[in-house]
Amino acid sequence: MTDLFIRNARPYGGDAVDLVVRDGVITEIGAGLEAPEGVETLDAEGRVLLPGLVDLHVHLREPGGEESETIETGSRAAALGGFTAVFAMPNTNPVADTDVVTAHVRRRGAEVGLVDVHPVGAVTVGLEGERLAELGTMASAAGVQMFSDDGHCVNDPLVMRRALEYASALDVVIAQHAEDHRLTQGAQANEGVVASRLGLAGWPATAEETIVARDCALAREAGARLHVCHVSSARTVDVLRSAKAAGVSVSAEVTPHHLLLTDAALTSYDPVNKVNPPLRTAADTQAMRAALAEGVIDVVATDHAPHASQYKDTEWQVAKPGMLGLQTALSVVVHTMVEPGLLDWHGVARVMSERPAEIAGLPDQGRPIAVGEPANLAVVDADEPWTVRGAALASRASNTPYEGMRLPAVVVATVLRGRLTARDGRVVEQVAS
Amino acid sequence: MKHLLSVTDLDAATATALLDTSDRLRQALLGREVRKLPTLRGRTVITMFYEDSTRTRVSFEIAGKWMSADTVNVSAKGSSVSKGESLRDTSLTLSAMGADCVIVRHPASGAAHRLASWSDKDHTATGTHTSIVNAGDGTHEHPTQALLDAATLRDRLGSVAGRRIGIVGDVLHSRVARSNVFLLATLGAEVVLIAPPTLLPVGVAEWPCRVSHEIDAELPGLDAVMMLRVQAERMTGGFFPSSREYAIAYGLNDTRAAMLPEHGVVLHPGPMVRGMEIAPSVADSARAAILAQVRNGVHVRMAVLYHLLAGAPE
């Protein structure tokens, strides 16, 4: 059923309206509308209405890592988090470096039907950073629009140059995990006071800054589109600002955890706080917030990275990096950006829906809440705080760094092309159409 | 005190109490024909070493035996991953067998913290709330080494407070240096780290110590100098140009040892690379307290086991 009547919702936190959705498209918006006959009603009770959220960076672990997450469980988490489109990174087993694997991911996502799952293709074969993967075939046969070796940096400048040049003809974007691996050998934590005291090998922020600076220069020369994954360091913001001012076609994302958490959390050695790039300093989180408000950093992306307990309930050094993000992202953004007045709801829509859709080239996501637009929507109770419990999240793994934390804003409902995918904290099971 | 994971678990009073207990235990054993105290009879102490070690493991084992504890040595070489069993499962197993204390040496920084948090969380399931002692975790800490160093300095210098102690060498990768900097500072000493910039951690400026790159300028003002071992793998890691240059710039040779004040003490946590960071003649000289460190190690570890398993004496 793709018809829906939404009563008493406040688009972008503005005045309350009712909306009529027909065949997945918003056909009427106004105050005091009549509910159409026989159409399901969603009473938003005066809550905030946003365009459905778009996440450029998730790990759904399927195929190969099903003990941590599947496309189904990840889709459930996405729907509950207010997302209507997610981009699944290719570091699966097998790696999504062919049209076969990427098409499989897209098909599985469609079968589950809770969120649009867009495969991200690998830049290089096996994520090994040596030979270009079949970008053209993935783009044409599986509709892949974004490529990344995420988890690894395309470290070799010549390989990165060729990738950007080749991508420019396909009009696809290369998303770089910016980390000079020579500078981060054995790295376990942000290089600085905390890591030094804890005896954890340091991941210097310069390893991110230098790659971003290099890639901006390469993208400029290639006339290519570059997207920088999970910016974590204050100085990277300066690099991005000057590249953008110089007209380089570069966009950037920040994760919710880099907006909120710092390396001070590491003193317990609980690997739930281990992530790559690592949690950095309070000064860095402040810089991330300011850059997101300013627009130097374009979007929030979760880097949702589920890991089964056997990969986290270990000593720090052997634990896998990554943390859950889909169901806490909006709350963290409200807490770090909306509450301090750095973003209003239009701003939230921009960084979590409109710009991500634009960067990835999605025509039907991140659209205005207006007549004639697709009904991809999220209803948010901005006033209701909730307590994060990893075990209660929809992901198969429970590695949330926010365990026990009280955060603002609850996603009350998510709508994908007129169909409810989540409502009142529960997934709306989809009937095969 | 349930666990000993880091010297930051110890305030000055607790650290001093441990050192005092160590002294008393040494006195109690002095001149005894049978070197055995009944204090920990019936207690089970397990050493679990994931790295090679002779002195620390044997020292803990002797400490336990002299206190009449039942000591068991687990050699758990190789990482938990290559071994197949996780560190957590190993620790649960030992607790379920009734280990009152697990002494752990592990290549991963924070491994002892992890064991302690599992012990605190799972003790109802295992039936034993096992105490964890950190016997060296990665490049983080080696608290009993710092305690035995403090005990040795107290013996030689009369006190630690107000003394100036130099620590020379690979501070970056040294758990001994970390534990010593923070314990000696807690006890009121002035600490000077002496090393090339490549062997100092980022953020060292925030530590309670001073940093110098000139050993010759510092030696005359030091009450004691602690030479850290230069590990072979660092020599090829580009941290300094060559072992020759290191020995020239930072090695404690006879000329340098003579620059120390008359009472100046030379310490080394061992194992030594003679001819590299320390000349054999200096290591064997009267200034060197290296064997006293080893002897004190047993008493300090007895004191730690005593405080953890029998409670701090009044």
UniProtKB/TrEMBL annotation, chain A:
<feature type="binding site">
    <location>
        <position position="59"/>
    </location>
    <ligand>
        <name>Zn(2+) 1</name>
    </ligand>
</feature>
<feature type="binding site">
    <location>
        <position position="177"/>
    </location>
    <ligand>
        <name>Zn(2+) 2</name>
    </ligand>
</feature>
<feature type="binding site">
    <location>
        <position position="150"/>
    </location>
    <ligand>
        <name>Zn(2+) 2</name>
    </ligand>
</feature>
<keyword id="KW-0862">Zinc</keyword>
<feature type="binding site">
    <location>
        <position position="150"/>
    </location>
    <ligand>
        <name>Zn(2+) 1</name>
    </ligand>
</feature>
<feature type="binding site">
    <location>
        <begin position="59"/>
        <end position="61"/>
    </location>
    <ligand>
        <name>substrate</name>
    </ligand>
</feature>
<feature type="binding site">
    <location>
        <position position="303"/>
    </location>
    <ligand>
        <name>Zn(2+) 1</name>
    </ligand>
</feature>
<feature type="binding site">
    <location>
        <position position="307"/>
    </location>
    <ligand>
        <name>substrate</name>
    </ligand>
</feature>
<feature type="active site">
    <location>
        <position position="303"/>
    </location>
</feature>
<feature type="binding site">
    <location>
        <position position="230"/>
    </location>
    <ligand>
        <name>Zn(2+) 2</name>
    </ligand>
</feature>
<keyword id="KW-0479">Metal-binding</keyword>
<dbReference type="GO" id="GO:0004038">
    <property type="term" value="F:allantoinase activity"/>
</dbReference>
<comment type="similarity">
    <text>Belongs to the metallo-dependent hydrolases superfamily. DHOase family. Class I DHOase subfamily.</text>
</comment>
<dbReference type="Pfam" id="PF12890">
    <property type="entry name" value="DHOase"/>
</dbReference>
<dbReference type="GO" id="GO:0004151">
    <property type="term" value="F:dihydroorotase activity"/>
</dbReference>
<dbReference type="InterPro" id="IPR004722">
    <property type="entry name" value="DHOase"/>
</dbReference>
<keyword id="KW-0378">Hydrolase</keyword>
<keyword id="KW-0665">Pyrimidine biosynthesis</keyword>
<comment type="pathway">
    <text>Pyrimidine metabolism; UMP biosynthesis via de novo pathway; (S)-dihydroorotate from bicarbonate: step 3/3.</text>
</comment>
<feature type="binding site">
    <location>
        <position position="91"/>
    </location>
    <ligand>
        <name>substrate</name>
    </ligand>
</feature>
<dbReference type="InterPro" id="IPR011059">
    <property type="entry name" value="Metal-dep_hydrolase_composite"/>
</dbReference>
<dbReference type="InterPro" id="IPR050138">
    <property type="entry name" value="DHOase/Allantoinase_Hydrolase"/>
</dbReference>
UniProtKB/TrEMBL annotation, chain B:
<dbReference type="InterPro" id="IPR006132">
    <property type="entry name" value="Asp/Orn_carbamoyltranf_P-bd"/>
</dbReference>
<dbReference type="GO" id="GO:0006520">
    <property type="term" value="P:amino acid metabolic process"/>
</dbReference>
<dbReference type="GO" id="GO:0004070">
    <property type="term" value="F:aspartate carbamoyltransferase activity"/>
</dbReference>
<comment type="similarity">
    <text>Belongs to the aspartate/ornithine carbamoyltransferase superfamily. ATCase family.</text>
</comment>
<dbReference type="Pfam" id="PF02729">
    <property type="entry name" value="OTCace_N"/>
</dbReference>
<keyword id="KW-0665">Pyrimidine biosynthesis</keyword>
<dbReference type="Pfam" id="PF00185">
    <property type="entry name" value="OTCace"/>
</dbReference>
<feature type="binding site">
    <location>
        <position position="142"/>
    </location>
    <ligand>
        <name>carbamoyl phosphate</name>
    </ligand>
</feature>
<feature type="binding site">
    <location>
        <position position="271"/>
    </location>
    <ligand>
        <name>carbamoyl phosphate</name>
    </ligand>
</feature>
<dbReference type="InterPro" id="IPR002082">
    <property type="entry name" value="Asp_carbamoyltransf"/>
</dbReference>
<feature type="domain" description="Aspartate/ornithine carbamoyltransferase Asp/Orn-binding">
    <location>
        <begin position="162"/>
        <end position="308"/>
    </location>
</feature>
<feature type="binding site">
    <location>
        <position position="105"/>
    </location>
    <ligand>
        <name>carbamoyl phosphate</name>
    </ligand>
</feature>
<feature type="binding site">
    <location>
        <position position="270"/>
    </location>
    <ligand>
        <name>carbamoyl phosphate</name>
    </ligand>
</feature>
<feature type="binding site">
    <location>
        <position position="145"/>
    </location>
    <ligand>
        <name>carbamoyl phosphate</name>
    </ligand>
</feature>
<comment type="subunit">
    <text>Heterododecamer (2C3:3R2) of six catalytic PyrB chains organized as two trimers (C3), and six regulatory PyrI chains organized as three dimers (R2).</text>
</comment>
<feature type="binding site">
    <location>
        <position position="229"/>
    </location>
    <ligand>
        <name>L-aspartate</name>
    </ligand>
</feature>
<dbReference type="GO" id="GO:0005829">
    <property type="term" value="C:cytosol"/>
</dbReference>
<dbReference type="GO" id="GO:0006207">
    <property type="term" value="P:'de novo' pyrimidine nucleobase biosynthetic process"/>
</dbReference>
<protein>
    <recommendedName>
        <fullName>Aspartate carbamoyltransferase</fullName>
        <ecNumber>2.1.3.2</ecNumber>
    </recommendedName>
</protein>
<dbReference type="GO" id="GO:0044205">
    <property type="term" value="P:'de novo' UMP biosynthetic process"/>
</dbReference>
<feature type="binding site">
    <location>
        <position position="175"/>
    </location>
    <ligand>
        <name>L-aspartate</name>
    </ligand>
</feature>
<feature type="binding site">
    <location>
        <position position="56"/>
    </location>
    <ligand>
        <name>carbamoyl phosphate</name>
    </ligand>
</feature>
